[in-house]
Write a structure and sequence with these properties.
Layout: H1 16-34, H2 56-67, H3 73-88, H4 94-110, H5 113-138, H6 144-224, H7 228-258, H8 272-281, E1 285-289, H9 301-321, E2 326-332, E3 337-345, H10 359-370, E4 374-382, E5 385-395
Parallel strand pairs: 1-2
Antiparallel strand pairs: 2-3, 3-5, 4-5
Helix pairs in contact: 1-2, 1-4, 2-3, 2-4, 3-4, 4-5, 4-6, 5-6, 6-7, 6-9, 6-10, 8-9, 9-10
Length: 402
């Protein structure tokens, strides 16, 4: 299959203002021509083409170039230069010269950057040459006016165009910087909103999921077992977790309403004892192993919070999914980092379980990543059988917000 031929580039359409300028210049030139007003008398030596009708040719050509002053500025300037040279050897028309100065201005303003740099230099050199060369040849002070005239017709509009172009470029650059700043600010705002939503989602899940999981498991047990004592014990656990979960929910709602960054009492490593005791009350056989120096104040607060939440979520998952057996929580501090490990039996569960969504593992991994740490979770083989192991390594120095 032969590739399709590229479409020919369409010529740019003239700007409406340029058409109006061309028509106005042409009509003004015709008016001056009609009343017999020209720029020089017919008996001057420079007038080589005599006759009133020949004046209209450079006028018409220059007016046509005005139509292209923005669409094709370099072409318009080259053709206009030829037209104004032709006008010099006739009696001349003032509107032809005026339109040519506009072509010079437009070539610098709308042309390429190279043209904008070169045209003022070229016209400046021509102005100087137009003054010095005739003066050197004829030694008449009046010849200096030739250079002045060249400068007025060419160098002055070119310099004006360069000044306007520079101001326009500066304004466009400032506008671009403002747009980029606004875009970056919007991106930062969006990222901050997403980060805050993720943080609140983690807090909501970690603070409430443990209590709701215990409620779900014990309510299932109370409904499935025909034992008054067991049902009363299950209902007691349900009530306790309901009250604690409601308190956590009220605390989280207060954070959202008041805009506080953290709860009033942020969990610490010292709170792990109460957390493990609560897990035992929910029916888990939990053992906590920590080093003596791992107490509140020895570890940065963000690391403490992350470690607490990881242990909390791991115990919640063990309550929902683990097989009967010992659950071990251990913390250590090797090589300037805090390691958290939670292991639980992994196998077929005999009792009731609660469904999971996987958000807990995502939240634990996010907490470790925010502190530039590592996280892994999965089944493993051990001396006591198949276990589910959760391990997190949290640096103690470069910790960020958890």
């Amino acid at each position: 299959m032969t590739p399709a031929a590229p479409r020919p580039r369409r010529a740019p359409r003239p700007h409406r203002f340029d058409v109006y300028a061309a028509v106005s210049g042409l009509l003004g030139g015709l008016l001056l021509w009609g009343i017999g007003l020209s720029t020089r008398p017919a008996d001057q030596p420079i007038v080589l083409l005599d006759g009133r009708w020949v004046i209209l040719l450079p006028l018409a050509v220059t007016a046509g170039c005005e139509v292209l002053r923005r669409a094709a500025p370099r072409t318009a300037l080259l053709v206009g230069t030829a037209a104004v040279v032709l006008d010099l050897v006739t009696q001349g028309n003032l509107l032809t010269v005026l339109m040519y100065t506009d072509l010079m201005y437009a070539a610098v303003l709308y042309g390429t950057p190279a043209s904008a740099r070169r045209i003022p230099w070229i016209t400046g050199l021509l102005s100087v040459a137009g003054a010095l060369v005739p003066f050197a040849l004829w030694r008449a002070p009046e010849t200096l006016l030739i250079g002045v005239g060249v400068g007025i017709v060419s160098f002055a509009p070119a310099s004006t165009g360069l000044i306007v172009r520079n101001h326009r470029d500066v304004a466009e650059a400032a506008q671009l910087r403002a747009e980029q700043t606004a875009l970056l600010a919007e991106m930062d705002r969006t990222q901050a909103v997403v980060a805050e939503r993720a943080r609140m989602a983690r807090e909501l899940h970690d603070m409430v999921a443990n209590h709701l999981s215990a409620i779900a498991i014990h309510s299932t047990a109370a409904l499935s077992l025909d034992d008054t004592k067991t049902s009363r014990e299950a209902l007691a656990v349900i009530r306790e977790n309901s009250v604690e979960g409601l308190a956590e929910m009220r605390r989280l709602i207060g954070i959202l309403r008041d805009g506080d960054g953290e709860p009033a009492a942020t969990p610490t490593l010292d709170s792990l004892v109460a957390l493990v005791a609560g897990a035992r009350g929910n029916g888990l056989d939990v053992t906590l192993v920590t080093l003596p120096d791992l107490t509140h104040g020895q570890v940065p607060a963000p690391v403490e919070l992350a470690a607490y939440r990881i242990v909390q979520e791991s115990l919640t998952n063990a309550l929902k999914h683990a097989s009967p057996g010992r659950v071990t929580v251990s913390l250590d501090q090797p090589n300037g980092s805090l390691t958290v490990e939670v292991t639980s039996p992994c196998g077929d569960r005999d009792g009731p379980s609660a469904p999971g969504s996987g958000a807990g593992l995502v939240g634990m991994r996010e907490r470790a990543a925010l502190l530039h740490g590592t996280f892994e979770a999965g089944p493993e083989d051990s001396a006591g059988g198949r276990i589910w192991a959760v391990r997190a390594t949290l640096p103690l120095k470069d910790g960020g917000p958890a």
